[in-house]
Amino acid sequence: MIRRPPTVVCYICGHEYGTKSISIHEPQCLKKWHNENNLLPKELRRPEPKKPEVRTITAKGFYDLDALNEAAWTSVQSQLVPCNIYGRTFLPERLIVHQRSCKPKAANSQ
C-alpha cells in the first residue's frame, strides 16, 4: 500500500501543503489574503484569520497533524459568508461573483 506524505491544511485558504512547504506558503497566503480583503467592500471585509493554536504532541514528539488540520479547516470555514438569498456560504471575494447571478426563484403562478 502506497502511503501519501503527510500534509497540513492552510488555516487561511484551506489547501493542503507538505509539512516542509506550509511554512513558506502561509506568509505568502496571508499577504494575498490581506490584498484581496482590502479590495472587498467594507461590509464584506473580515478580520485577519488567526492561526489556530494546537499544542497536542504525539508520543513521538510530533504535532498531532489530525488535530492541527481539523483546527485549520474550522478556521477556514469560519471565514465563509452566507448568500443573503439562499444562505449558501462563500469566501467573501467569491460571494461578490455569486451575487451577480443569484436571483430568487420565481414563485409558481397558478
Automatic annotation (TrEMBL):
Gene of this entry: LOC106007594
**Gene Ontology terms, MF aspect:** zinc ion binding
Keywords from UniProt, A to Z, are: Metal-binding, Repeat, Zinc, Zinc-finger
This chain belongs to the protein called Zinc finger protein 474 isoform X4
Query: Which residues are in the C2HC/C3H-type domain?
Result: 6-35, 79-108
Q: Name one Pfam family in it.
A: zf-C2HC_2
Record PANTHER family: C2H2 ZINC FINGER CGI-62-RELATED, ZINC FINGER PROTEIN 474
For this protein, the record's InterPro entries field holds: ZC2HC1A/B-like, Znf_C2HC_C3H
UniProt keyword annotation of Disulfide bond present: no
